[in-house]
Amino acid sequence: MLGATASFLEEEYTIPPWVHLLNKSDLMTAIQNRLTGLLSWYKGKFKHYDVNNEMLHGSFYLDRLGKDIRSYMFKMAHQLDPSTSLFVNDYHVEDGRDTRSALEKYIEQVGTYQDAPIEGIGIQGHVDSPVGSVVTSALDKLGILGFPIWFTELNVPSINEYVRADDLEVMLREAFAHPAVDGIMLWGFWELYNAHLVNAEGDVNEAGKRFIQLKKECLSHFHSQIDDHGEFRFRGFHGKYNVEIDTQYSKKISKAFLVDKGSSPLVVNIDM
Description:
Blueprint: E1 6-9, H1 17-20, H2 24-41, E2 48-53, H3 60-65, H4 69-80, E3 85-90, H5 103-112, E4 118-123, H6 132-143, E5 149-154, H7 161-177, E6 181-186, H8 206-217, E7 239-246, E8 252-259
Parallel strand pairs: 1-2, 2-3, 3-4, 4-5, 5-6
Antiparallel strand pairs: 7-8
Helix pairs in contact: 2-4, 6-7, 7-8
InterPro entries: GH, GH10, GH10_dom
GO biological process, one term: polysaccharide catabolic process
Domain GH10: 1-214
């Protein structure tokens, strides 16, 4: 299942020229056709969907069709594909560097659309020289809203690959460690993108090496023997696990299970 896509962008420069020429009636029809076409074609294929992107930075549809258009977009998207979680999404929310997308404004915006089926908060994560405490503070405040948070376009655009590696580590550690964050998507990884981890020749650069190092650190691997009670206990990260048991009869037993969020211990019984 894919991560996310966006139906609409609110900033004027992102709107195709032909859309600027539409009257109100034709613009509404174009919106309906866009939603119907995308969500019918990709139904069930996206984990979440950014319906109307960057609403703090533009108001193209709002200015032309009124305050209810944004909720309408979310409601129609939900009707077309109820299986997909619908997100708001914007940039510079986590670093406090843009007054248009100040954290307080984003929180207010989420509350404004309570009648719309919004199920998650996207923060794009385009951050230069990130400060861990600033990012964490933003996540803490957004987390109070109770929605899952995704970094939807994470990149750290320093030209210097060593600085980029350090900045990437700051962002990934803060995002991975925060209980409100459900997922992280990178904004490209090859050299055409300014946050690239892999050079044009296919070589992994310093930022890419740091990413691989952090990924290994954040995976749980355990090898041990069961105790006298036939138990084996461990602490691990949330996620999918596969346990393999070697018996004295050279028989291998395997079982997959999921460690989900929560404070209660998970007990997995395996029939030997």
